[in-house]
């Protein structure tokens, strides 16, 4: 935090705070390994651990970003090979069970293999109900859907006019955001929630103490006076929840 200069732009200030948090987390908190699947090899787990480490640092520099992307491909390829080998082994065991008359074990393996299949959520329907499959069509549909959420159903600019009633008078001098307000906001964040696209959780912000909250306070005031926000603040993650008939 000490290398954050008052002359930094809003974007630079926000990026420095993000980098400081991630570097501190990387140095003090060991990466959490998820429950191991029966078919994942130790080699794949080691690659996944390294990928998890680089994920914390991928926005620190272009070099880390490139390493992270390359490792993501390696992990997927290795995991896919592990699963193919495991499925082949299970099929051979099921076939062997049927050949020797052990139908209970054979059908148990077949049932387990069926449960391993999970529907992929890489398609979406357009307004006419047609299934879209290409990435460009899907992105376009999501953009169209999200944009429609902020439009006036009547086709006018009624929703924009509503902002006039909540905006401060034009001649009012903007007051600084209080440090106590920032502290209250950070402390009131709910814990054990999924992070946004930057990977920073409420627990990380709360554990940063006064040095971090002071910098966030300065950043918020800078954004308030400049009338803009860091690029990362405008990003969000969409989680599609399929209906039963779409699976």
TrEMBL record:
Keywords, ordered alphabetically: Coiled coil
Coiled-coil annotated residue ranges, if any: 40-67
Protein name: Uncharacterized protein
Organism: Rotaria magnacalcarata
